[in-house]
Specification:
NADP; 5-stranded parallel β-sheet; 10 helices; Rossmann fold; dTDP-4-dehydrorhamnose reductase; globular; alpha/beta
Amino acid sequence: MRMRLMLLGGGNALGQALIRLGAEEDIGFFAPCPPAQGWDAASLTQLLDDNRPDVVINLAYYFDWFQSSLVDEQVLIRQGRAVERLAELCQHHDFILLQPSSYRVFDGARTTAYSEKDELAPLDSRSRALSEFEQSVRALCPRHVLLRFGWLLDESADGILGRFLRRLEEGVSIELADDRRGNPTPVDDAARVMLAVIKQLDCQAPLWGVYHYGGHEASTPLLVGQAILAEAGRHRSLEGEILVPTAHADCSDAEDEPQHGVLACKKIFNTFGIKPRAWRAGLAPLLERYYRHG
């Protein structure tokens, strides 16, 4: 790897997965510790002025964007200012900016898979913020790669998977939509995709723009929950009758979550040769890490 890689957010689940996969191929990341208040415009300015990487991978706000159950709007506003400053700095220094985004920038009104050309229509404050972050990066930093992921699953205790597993262990009924669709994407698979993109950028390929990636086989929350329950049963004794099929419209998050969030992954395959992997294959190592660290 000729390029110098700076990873913001190396301590979160996606950052750790990226570091693990990079180490297997002798690819290292400079992953600075964030200041006590977290990365903001001023601290990012100092960091990039002092270190001058070739590529900045922005996972600084990964948990808030992809795993948290609720994010304060003021936090999102501060993160927006930081993302805007980061994009300005990358443009000024001619750095490459690699940043994740989400299927949540779409409203889920269409039943066919979303392509990179489809118009954004976010539903809630977090989705609107993600859309605005994308616009800042696209407007301010020409050398960017935005990766929109499907339903990201990681081993963090307070993430989507962790909250679901705790409810399973409590034995409470869990309502899961059986008419909502998306692409489950284990965090290791997302890291694999990011590393593949980085390796091709290292070959001086000017492949800037927005790309979609989600695990193979679009599914419903109910089917994903059943698969997680079966895998978790290898580690714990769990009740198998507590998952309740529910209509999307009757779910508590129906106003915030797209009913149809399937992403078309043709562009990333045609450009980078990245093929979607079956999401079910990633559940075993994910659950193993969760219970080992829990």
